[in-house]
Amino acid sequence: MIRKILHILLSVILLFISIAPATPQAQNYGENSSVGASYNDLVNKLNENIRKQNELRQKILDAQNQANTLANQISYLENQIALTRLEIEETQDRLAQLKTDIKDVSGKLSNTKEELDYSQEVANSRIRQLYRQGFVQSTDVFLTSSSFNEYIVRRVYAQAIKEQDISLLEALKETKQEFTNQKNDLENKKAKEEDLNKKLEDKKGSLVSQDNNKQYLLGVTKNQEKNYQKLLAQVQTELESIARALGGGAVRLGPVKKGEVIAFQGNTGCSTGTHLHWGVYVNGVAVNPRIYINNGRLAWPEKGFTITQEFGANFTWYMQNFGLPGHNAIDMTSGFSSPIYASADGIAYAASDSQPCYAFTGTIGKGVIVDHGGGLKTIYWHIK
Predict the structure, then answer these.
(1) Residues 188 and 281 placed together within one structural domain of the fold
(2) What value does the mean pLDDT take over residues 67-88?
């Protein structure tokens, strides 16, 4: 009898061993000392980067509050460039940090998936076994037992196995939830990585633009304060003249047709060389002329021309000095005295500066404005 009881006990123990879920060997991601030290170095580097950014932002703010000089403007641009480089470096470091986090979560997710698959396999097997056992009544257990003691042992260990199965199913439920949480975490981190990559490309584009602004300023002023002040005077006078003309300070010439010659390219007013300053305004606000070229509403005002400055060019310089989002027109040239054509049907008006621009040509700047209706106007400046 004792031998039978021991045999039953041994069978139950072996059964427990066979159904107990094996835990896959854990893998460490980012927890060893070398990786931890590297991670801490990255955090320290980011903190130092942010400190330097704050210093540069203060310098930029100080520059904005100082007198408008070439030296101050160059300092402003250089600080902007340095700040953008730091922002690019910060974004790259955050991406590196995020890639480590993604690797960590991916590793945990893989382990959890293995554990989930194994636990699910064991649970399915046990559920099938419990289903079969459900048809075995207590009387059957009693009748198939060789003695009452054997019956008691079989009942006790059957209950133990049932409780083990319940624990297994609870553990499986927790593992499924952990898997879902890790999967969501991974998706969130990947979305953040994509967003950081986009910001990185935007910042790189800003760096190119800022550097171009600096080179433009140095090129047109030849690094001389006198030339810089002339450039300021040119833009200020041009903006004031156009604003005055748009506001009604122009003389009506009459109707014109699209493609009709309305003027000839010159070099009048605050101009550094013969060119046409062609702008498009909607309800008094400058917009990119290419929008209306692309949709066919307007035509180019010259033939065989070369564009010397695009709309929106030199954003930082125009924003710093005039609060404008870059150059407010397209500058082009087909050569001195080249014909200028109306970009669309409308009413033409003649306009001019209030006084000669002695800093450059010594002449009064002249222009034509064509009102196309619906708030749309085109301007043609520095004409003969």
Answers:
(1) no
(2) 91
